[in-house]
């Protein structure tokens, strides 16, 4: 898969292509279906498939300070897209200048003049251009004018009625996944994502308290906007990104460590059955289940006894290591 930053260096002789457009944060199951349709449409036409996305998130440029929690880093997003068979992953820097393009200008300058799109696939709720003035109907109209076809794909989800649950149906969206993670429901998040929610970070030095308790932890320093699950204790797969095929079981604490009157929110992973110093490593946590809320214990011994239980339950939840 080719990875482009902007549209300044398109290969010589670049011809027609099939494009899908979106932020694609999380690359959830709805995104996956849209991207797969794009790949199939490109294969039928014998042209490249292109995923056109944006960085930074448009909301941060348009409304500074409103950046939503980030489900996937740009690097992770590219990996997930590549796994779907896409030919080109193009990241368009989102700037105020770009945000001011009218829908007509966006289509003409980016989709037609630069990418030479023969077909464009987007979600039914897709908007584009200054003040989100463009929608799928306008995209189809402009496509007729400029010589490409546009398709609006129905949003993906699942019916809770089919499973006997008394609730509204769920539409898979980045907003929905963020709400699940914010509530600590990593199982529901995984259902929408099609895989566990991943949190990446660099392992940094902590206060050493876990080591003193007999449970040394890897303390993650995460990206500014990372989608960190609600406070609690979780089971997760721990992976060094330099060795992605080796998955290790971990019990993960997210919170302020109330037993010791902590104030700073941290993410600490006790990695089972290894004696390694992960300091300085870039690692990932793939959250599987939530074990419990954060609790305040009267003594360190009470906390240790509870961690003993957490480790047993982690083994039960994750089985043998990966």
Tell me what you see in this structure.
It is built from 10 helices and 14 strands. It is an alpha/beta fold and 322 residues long. The protein folds into 2 domains: 2-157, HUPs (Rossmann fold, 3-Layer(aba) Sandwich), CATH 3.40.50.620; 196-318, Elongation Factor Tu (Ef-tu), domain 3, CATH 2.40.30.30. The mean pLDDT is 91.
Percent range of helical residues: 25-40%
Radius of gyration: 22 Å
Characterize the biggest β-sheet: 6 strands, parallel
Order of secondary-structure elements? EEHEHHEHHEHEEEHHEHEEEEEH
Integer count of domains? 2
Low-confidence stretches: none
Number of strands: 14
N-to-C span: 27 Å
Notable traits:
322 residues, alpha/beta, six-stranded antiparallel beta barrel, 10 helices, 31% helix, 27% strand
Helix/strand layout:
Elements (H helix, E strand, L loop, with lengths): L1 E4 L11 E5 L7 H17 L3 E7 L2 H5 L11 H9 L5 E6 L2 H4 L3 H12 L2 E7 L12 H11 L2 E5 L3 E2 L11 E2 L2 H9 L3 H8 L3 E8 L4 H5 L4 E5 L9 E9 L6 E9 L10 E6 L10 E11 L7 H19 L4
Helix pairs in contact: 5-6, 7-8
């Amino acid at each position: 898969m080719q990875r482009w930053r902007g549209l300044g260096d398109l290969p010589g002789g670049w011809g027609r292509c099939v494009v899908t457009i979106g932020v694609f944060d999380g690359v959830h199951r709805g995104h996956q279906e849209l991207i797969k349709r794009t790949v199939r449409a490109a294969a039928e036409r014998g042209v490249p498939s292109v995923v056109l996305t944006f960085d930074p998130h448009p909301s941060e440029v348009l409304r500074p300070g409103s950046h939503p929690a980030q489900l996937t880093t740009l690097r992770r997003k590219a990996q997930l897209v590549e796994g779907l068979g896409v030919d080109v992953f193009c990241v368009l820097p989102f700037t105020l200048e770009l945000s001011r393009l009218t829908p007509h200008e966006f289509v003409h300058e980016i989709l037609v003049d630069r990418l030479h799109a023969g077909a464009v696939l987007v979600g039914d709720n897709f908007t584009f251009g200054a003040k989100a003035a463009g929608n799928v109907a306008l995209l189809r109209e402009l496509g007729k004018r400029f010589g490409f076809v546009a398709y609006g794909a129905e949003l993906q989800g699942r019916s809770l009625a089919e499973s006997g649950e008394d609730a509204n149906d769920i539409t898979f969206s980045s907003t929905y996944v963020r709400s699940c993670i914010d509530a600590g429901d990593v199982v529901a998040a995984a259902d929408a994502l099609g895989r566990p929610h991943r949190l990446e970070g660099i392992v940094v030095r902590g206060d050493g308290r876990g080591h003193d308790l007999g449970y040394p932890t890897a303390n993650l320093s995460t990206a500014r906007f990372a989608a960190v699950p609600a406070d609690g204790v979780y089971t997760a797969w721990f992976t060094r990104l330099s060795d992605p095929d080796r998955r290790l079981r971990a019990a993960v604490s997210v919170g302020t460590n109330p037993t010791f009157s902590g104030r700073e929110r941290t993410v600490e992973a006790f990695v089972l059955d290894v004696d390694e110093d992960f300091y300085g490593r870039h690692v990932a946590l793939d959250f599987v289940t939530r074990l419990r809320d954060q609790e305040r214990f009267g003594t360190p011994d009470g906390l240790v006894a509870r961690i003993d239980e957490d480790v047993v339950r982690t083994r039960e939840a994750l089985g043998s290591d990966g």
